[in-house]
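Subject: Predicted fold for Response regulator, 133 residues

User T.R. writes:
Posting the sequence so we have a shared reference for the thread.
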Amino acid sequence: MARIIYVEDDDLAGELVRDVLTQAGHLVGVIGHGTLAYETIAFKKPDLVILDRSLPGMPGMEILRRLRQTPETYLTPILMLTAKRGNSLADEAIEAGADDYLVKPFQPEDLVQRVEAALVSKKFTADRRVRRP
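User M.O. replies:
I've generated the structure tokens; pasting them so everyone works from the same file.
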């Protein structure tokens, strides 16, 4: 079970993602404001962050960049989940540090699979850091 923060200002989308990931065994909190989300993520240090691009307060890309610049959160897996399509947008997010980019609408199974992959990657990275002399 992972602790996940989903940053999404659309209540319906937030509820859908929370339900899908809760059924997959995770604890999911949904935050609808970018600035509040950044502060909460920095304080709570979740196992995974899912970000929308368009948010009030602070855009998802700005949250992503700040999390990657902060030592306590730079290894936190981040999945962008957005309605914004386009290879250049996905490339921009990946270059800024996103681990994955998923476009809405999505298949629930695809979301669960990508979340699980990000969590496995985080565990692998953490295990390697612990074992180094």
